[in-house]
């Protein structure tokens, strides 16, 4: 099976679309699929990094204004047909997919906005919302299979391999605000950790390769004992299992954190993260600290100090989070649906 994946990364969009598509592509390759990415070189793109992961990337020209032109450029750059198109892109919807069917037999759309029409055979939205089962009722064709909720979260293999000693180190914090961290929340977090007693607190700080504050963060972390900086790491699950508490953004990280049973203090860095984060907070599966513009180093330090002093509360939050993402679901369930569609059995 030949699969085409259309997604982009940038400083403003972040790396989440590319990362979850890469997770899906690697799982499909294990089933014998041949996967190609097709991307635009926005500022902060991950095209070179994708290539380093052994992925073939078709590079489109400079950005264009509408999805019809995007589809036209994509088709002009393809030299073969595909059994499946995977689309993970907020600016592309029904019009794009309708034109891409010229070269693609089936289409899987990954979305979480539910704000536009889609022409697809499978719709995947891994977010958890009170009205989750109704959001796409009038946005997809009648035949479309809807994979909704965190039981379909696209998680890498490492998250299904829980180590035996995975209770988290006391007073150990994990910080991650996504691949680009456009608001530079990581610096606030590092400053907050510096305010805590260093002999008691240890921390892992994770940033993306395109983080614009990378050089400054490297200097900051170098001055702090028991704090380590990780750049574009591929072992996030290991770091999560070692941590007692995570400070970070919403988005796909929610489900990584949940399957690890890691309590989270969450800052929403984009509008589309707010509804799910608020609902998880209501369920007791995380603590929503607020929006990025409201944060400060002093506030982070206060919150970290309080929750690290409440082990029973952290245990409760972690267990509630863990209950939301089945250990035997996620990516394997999505692959099952894709293979059934390709074989014409669904």
List the helices and strands and how they pair.
Elements (H helix, E strand, L loop, with lengths): L1 E6 L8 H14 L4 E6 L7 H6 L3 E4 L7 H11 L4 E7 L5 H7 L3 E7 L11 E4 L19 E4 L23 E5 L8 H11 L6 E6 L6 H9 L4 E5 L4 H7 L2 E5 L3 H8 L3 E5 L5 H10 L3 E5 L5 H12 L2 H12 L8 H12 L4
Parallel strand pairs: 1-2, 1-4, 2-3, 4-5, 5-6, 6-7, 8-9, 8-11, 9-10, 11-12, 12-13
Helix pairs in contact: 1-12, 3-4, 5-10, 8-11
How would you describe what is shown here?
By secondary structure, the chain is an alpha/beta fold. It folds into two domains: 2-154 and 330-342, Rossmann fold (3-Layer(aba) Sandwich); 159-322, Glycogen Phosphorylase B (Rossmann fold), CATH 3.40.50.2000. Helix content is 34%, strand content 20%. The chain contains twelve helices and 13 strands. The protein has helices at residues 16-29, 47-52, 67-77, 94-100, 185-195, 214-222, 236-242, 253-260, 274-283, 297-308, 311-322, 331-342; strands at residues 2-7, 34-39, 56-59, 82-88, 104-110, 122-125, 145-148, 172-176, 202-207, 227-231, 245-249, 264-268, 287-291. The protein has a seven-stranded parallel beta sheet with strand order 3-2-1-4-5-6-7. Strands 10-9-8-11-12-13 form a six-stranded parallel beta sheet, sandwiched between helices. Strand 9 (202-207), helix 6 (214-222) and strand 10 form a beta-alpha-beta unit. Helix 1 packs across helix 12 and helix 8 (253-260) packs across helix 11 (311-322). The longest helix has 14 residues, at 16-29. 46% of the residues are buried. InterPro entries: PseG. Substrate binds at residues 156, 256. GO terms for molecular function: glycosyltransferase activity. It comes from Rheinheimera nanhaiensis E407-8. The active site is at 17 (proton acceptor).
